[in-house]
Amino acid sequence: MEFNNSQPIYKQIIDDFKKKLIRGELKKGDKIPSQREYAEQVKVNPNTVQRAYREMESMNMVETLRGQGTFISISADRLEEIKMEMAVNLLDYFISEMESLGYSREDILKILSQENTNREGEGTL
């Protein structure tokens, strides 16, 4: 996993877990690496991973069982909420960046519509 300086590492770790959940790479009941193991895998401070895991627990994504480890415990409803939150955040970022390039909302919609049409023709949507 590669980290960038745009946001704290613990948030990037959480986002990585969210993406894995959304893509189905992780499912309810799956055991995730211990905090120490994960810190070694991604080469970050164990305290950073501890913070990410603690946040994920408060978000009802994972559950730590004493002596057994940390497991995915997210409900289908919560997963859908997270998926929508991430989609809205991406759209907000996209719209802000397009507007910073001088595009109007109407221009953005036209570009999206045209790109959608192009991708349908290529069979990639």
UniProtKB/TrEMBL annotation:
Classification via Gene3D superfamilies: Winged helix-like DNA-binding domain superfamily/Winged helix DNA-binding domain
TM spans (from-to): none
A GO molecular function held by the record: DNA-binding transcription factor activity
Entry keyword set: DNA-binding, Transcription, Transcription regulation
Residues in HTH gntR-type domain copies: 7-75
Keyword Ribonucleoprotein attached: no
Source domain of life: Bacteria
Protein name as annotated: Transcription regulator HTH, GntR
Organism: Syntrophomonas zehnderi OL-4
